[in-house]
Amino acid sequence: MSNAETPATEAAEIFKMYESAVESAMTYGEKLLKGAEVFTKLNIDDINKTPRDLTLRMDKVQIFHYRPMVKKPASVPVLIVYALMNKQYIMDIQPDKSFVKKLLEEGLDVYIVDWGYPTASDRYLTTEDYIEGYLSDAIDFIREKHALPAINLLGKCQGGTFSAIYASLHPEKIRNLVTIAAPFDFDIQDGLLFKWSKYIDIDRLVDAFGVLPGDFLNNTFIMLSPYNLAIGKYINIVNSFDDPKALGEFLRMEKWLFDCPAQAGENYRTWMKDLWQENKLIKDEFVLGDKKIRLKNITMPVLNVYGSKDNLIPLSSSKPLLSLIGSKDKEEVCFPVGHAGIVASTLSQREIAPKIATWFKGRS
Amino acid sequence: MSAQFYEKFFETQKSMFEEWQKTMQASYKNVAAASETAENQQEFYKKVFGSSDDFFKKIGDSSQVYQSLFDLWKRLSESGPSLDAKAAGEIYEDWSRHFFEQLREVFVPTVPAFMQHFTENFVDKFESTDKVLAGNFKTWFTAEEELRKAWFDSLGKGPKGYVDFLEVWRKTYEDTTGKLVNAPTFGKDMDSWKLRKAVFDSYIKYSIAATRFSVALADIAGEATRKTLDDYTAMFAGEQKIKTFDEFYKYWSKTVSSTYEKVLFSDEMSRLAGNMVDEMANFRSEFDKLFELSFADLPIPKKSDMDDLYATMYALKKEVRALKKEVKTLAGAKS
């Protein structure tokens, strides 16, 4: 319809629409121009910078000890075990959102596992090597260093599953166990990765790649929310181009999201086939090396933490843990956060880390 | 202010964005060369985005999608009172052809980096039917008419038409070239020829699976857009109206996201995703085998040689670790 034919009111309405569009386009343009200046001055090298010392190295795996932040830290140290599929520095993503820093401020003595970046030579590493090898050696090392029979274990995501498996095999070496957003039941209906994993020929994939490229995981995670993660967020970020704080937070998170390490093939084969596809862990059918895993053997105090907005590991997968273990002192707590936000958000600073620290201190 | 003025303004804004993108990319390289700090920062961006160029490309690609949506909204709002379901449908059909191309550009990178150029090359070849039919696969001449018909039938149907064409293409491949490719091999270079054929066949199958998956992703966005348009048209006729582009974009992106959430869970999408991964793995295996055979006579270790070495290293490391523990236990028992 031409302007001449448009009634005056309609024309005025369209004019108003154009006006608002032009206005927002101009704002968009201004943001881009200001963003050029913000970009050149932005400093985001404060990721993973809470003071720490390398205390143990095993092949590519490193164990770091954070320098305590209180005069008398808790006598039983905590070892944080992160997933193999993402990097542990999400727990120290920036000073004002550092989960680790908060635990230190709350008086804990903290160690962390950095699994490293597997390369082609790591293709034969098995799940047993990770749990009964690296993790077990790290725990023994810390126990000896502190002359303690048992230490505290805090596992996040896949690290939580690994920690629970270890705790079931060696309950005498673990004083208290905390799991955060960790998968236990893999036969759930509300997790996309859980659904898709059943349609993939894992043997074929591992045989083809040997070590699974980190790229494969990056792209799989994008598929959880393809529009938002591949397009939408890059449109929205332009609105924050002139805000160094928001842009800095965006870039730190981008670094972490696209930093998935490659996966040692044999471990990936077991992890995906036995757990994700066949759900053996909660059925007492999972065998690690020559040892059958029974979660009922977990008898130490356990705190299970999960997020109601977690679309990667939905709470339906994390929640069953307490019903599967033998512990008498067990507790679960749900927070309205997602998979990353559970350890890297304002809420994690304000409530989640303090809750975990208090829980550990009350039992150490 | 007239529509012409607005278009001119938007064109200027688009040029400005492109210039900004170029300036950022160029200046970023200059700054990086100028100081060590900046070099570190460049490294950081490389780590985050592949390269700093990629980051600006991501912003640019997303901006294209955004702008395309703006064009759609502009055409809808220009329709004024004459907008009804039929008119909205026509606008959508016209617009969706370009939109699909843009989405595909964004989604092709969802396959691992080393596979991307295979996918892109395939898509390029795929679109140029003359090249495919006359150049690469001569045995297809017999099927040319059917394929041409399928191709022309698919035009204007958007992503779904593309998949229909793909289906005819796949069937034709299996009935013609595929038969030749999978026929028994014999003769002097039997192993090499057999592998070449296996690579070709797995490449075709992977490309089809990857195209199907990315088309399905784009199709979901198309369907969600269609729904947004229907809602927009209904709202236009009623009291509650979407007044600004910002509102339109928010409504659209919310609809697209929620549609993805629903559809990705379907058995069909799960099968497509699984099939793409399986075919990717097949192609990778065949490609590696051919690669090894091609370089067998060169004085360099092959992947399989290295795997043997890694297996030995792994076994030895494990043995050393066990022995160390044994020594430690024995030493402890002695003291």
List key phrases describing it:
heterodimer; A: 364 residues; alpha/beta; eight-stranded mixed β-sheet; 13 helices; 12 strands; disordered N terminus; B: mainly alpha
Textual characterization of the structure:
The complex is a heterodimer of chains A (364) and B (335). Chain A is of the alpha/beta class and 364 residues long. Chain A has a single domain (52-361), classed as Rossmann fold (3-Layer(aba) Sandwich). Chain A is 43% helix and 15% strand. Chain A is built from 13 helices and 12 strands. Chain A has helices at residues 8-41, 99-105, 127-145, 158-169, 192-197, 202-209, 214-222, 226-236, 244-257, 265-277, 315-318, 321-324, 346-361; strands at 52-58, 61-66, 78-81, 110-114, 151-156, 174-180, 211-212, 263-264, 287-288, 291-292, 302-307, 330-335. An 8-stranded mixed beta sheet of chain A has the order 1-2-4-3-5-6-11-12, with helices on both faces. In chain A, strands 7-8 form a two-stranded antiparallel sheet. In chain A, helix 4 (158-169) links the parallel strand 5 (151-156) and strand 6. Chain A is globular and about 80 Å long. By secondary structure, chain B is mostly helical. Chain B contains 13 helices and no strands. Chain B has helices at 3-34, 36-49, 52-79, 85-107, 113-127, 129-136, 144-154, 158-175, 177-181, 190-237, 245-263, 267-294, 303-334. In chain B, helix 2 (36-49) crosses helix 3 and helix 3 (52-79) runs antiparallel to helix 4 (85-107). At the A-B interface, helix 1, helix 5, helix 6, helix 7 and helix 8 of A face helix 1, helix 2, helix 3, helix 11 and helix 12 of B.
Topology record:
The complex is a heterodimer of chains A (364) and B (335).
Chain A: H1 8-41, E1 52-58, E2 61-66, E3 78-81, H2 99-105, E4 110-114, H3 127-145, E5 151-156, H4 158-169, E6 174-180, H5 192-197, H6 202-209, E7 211-212, H7 214-222, H8 226-236, H9 244-257, E8 263-264, H10 265-277, E9 287-288, E10 291-292, E11 302-307, H11 315-318, H12 321-324, E12 330-335, H13 346-361
Parallel strand pairs in A: 3-4, 3-5, 5-6, 6-11, 11-12
Antiparallel strand pairs in A: 1-2, 2-4, 7-8, 9-10
Helix pairs in contact in A: 2-13, 3-4, 3-10, 6-10
Chain B: H1 3-34, H2 36-49, H3 52-79, H4 85-107, H5 113-127, H6 129-136, H7 144-154, H8 158-175, H9 177-181, H10 190-237, H11 245-263, H12 267-294, H13 303-334
